[in-house]
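pasting for the record
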Amino acid sequence: MSGKSMTALVIALLLLMVSFNSLYIIKETDRAVLLKFGEIVNADIQPGLHIMWPVVNKVRKFDGRVLTLDAQPQAYLTIEKKRLIVDSFIKWRVVDPQKYYTATSGDQYKAADLLFPNVDAGLRNQFGERTLTEVVSGERDELMSELVEQLSIQTIDELGIEMIDIRIKKIDLPQEVSASVYERMRTEREREARELRSRGKEFAEGIRADADRQKAVLEANAYRDAQEVRGEGDALAAKIYADAYNKDAEFYSFYRSLNAYKEAFGQQGDIMVLKPDSEFFRYLGNPNGK
């Protein structure tokens, strides 16, 4: 290969490298600034294919999508001076590339360091104006909306960053307070349990007393009915005996005497001391009882 051909090849390669380094692409999801010796000359490069001068110009690209920054849990005081541990996160995006690059040099970590103090101060102020109930449930959405609106104006002006949303992941009491709160909750539940057991026992005693009363009434009524039936039976038996006696009084007297003899002399060795002319032996001496 001749010297001219070698020179032409080198020149072609250099031109190719220059052309390659002169072209750059900006995506739809990117934000970018064009620098000339470190100075911003184009702060709003549109998406597409662009040309720049190598060495002279430099392009800095940033993610233009909504980004998330997870904040470290921080302690805040409510208006009631109750201390809470709040875990939150931030949704943000770059809307002014020039201000963003000037403030952060395009470094997301530096942007986070600049955003967190503002968010921390805003949350501290918002929590300090509300009660525990309001920040936990009652006015949380309103609190976040107000804070986002206030901070977004400030961050756009200072950092070129728009605050999309600030959300609270979790709100906890400090560890030393949680133990006492749980203990108080347990004591309260135990007290309620004792009250419920006491009411249950009282109700049970009432049921038992009513059951005992009904039992006593039923037994008394049954005894009364039994006595009435027994009395009617005894009266009927006495009437039958009386009727039978009246039909043959002499035979009935004889029958009773035989039963008396049977009962009196039924065991061996029994001794009875009576006069021979006793009424008891009237049928022994005379079958007619005379």
